[in-house]
Amino acid sequence: MNDIIKVHESHPRIVKRLKRAGGHLRGVIEMIEAGRPCLDIAQQLHAVEKAIAHAKKTLIQDHLNHCLEEVVGPLARSRRRSIDEFKEIAKYL
C-alpha cells in the first residue's frame, strides 16, 4: 500500500454521496424488516447501487486524471495517445 495519503478535490463529494447511500441502505433494511413491498425495496436498492457506482466511477476518473498524470508526466504526443485512450475507455467501466 502507498503510505502517501492524497486527498483530491472530488473526495469530499464522494464521501457525501457514500454517506447518503449508507442512509438509504439503512432505510432499505428498515423497509425489509417492516415487510414493505418487494418492488419498493428493489427500487431503493437500485438507487443505492447507482449512488455507489457513481462514487466509484468518480474516484477512478479522479485517480486517472491526477495520480496517473503525476506518474506519467510529460510525454511525446505519440506516447501520450495511449494514456489518453486508456483514460477515455475507463469511462465505460
CATH topology: Methane Monooxygenase Hydroxylase, Chain G, domain 1
Mean pLDDT: 86
Number of strands: 0
Number of helices: 3
Strand content: under 5%
Radius of gyration: 18 Å
Per CATH, the class reads Mainly Alpha
- Structural domain count: 1
Q: Main beta sheet, described? A: none
> What pattern of helices and strands is seen along the backbone?
HHH
- Indicate the low-confidence ranges by residue numbers: none
Pfam families: Trns_repr_metal (PF02583)
Family: Belongs to the FrmR/RcnR family.
Protein name: Metal resistance protein
GO molecular function, one term: DNA binding
Folded structure, characterized:
- The structure is a single chain.
- The chain has helices spanning 11-33, 38-72, 77-89.
- With 93 residues, it is mainly alpha-helical.
- The chain has a single domain, classed as Metal-sensitive repressor, helix protomer (Methane Monooxygenase Hydroxylase, Chain G, domain 1), CATH 1.20.58.
- The chain is elongated, with a radius of gyration of 18 Å.
- The two termini are 23 Å apart.
- The model has no long low-confidence stretch (mean pLDDT 86).
- Belongs to the FrmR/RcnR family.
- GO terms for molecular function: DNA binding; metal ion binding.
- One of its GO terms (biological process) is negative regulation of DNA-templated transcription.
- It comes from Mesorhizobium delmotii.
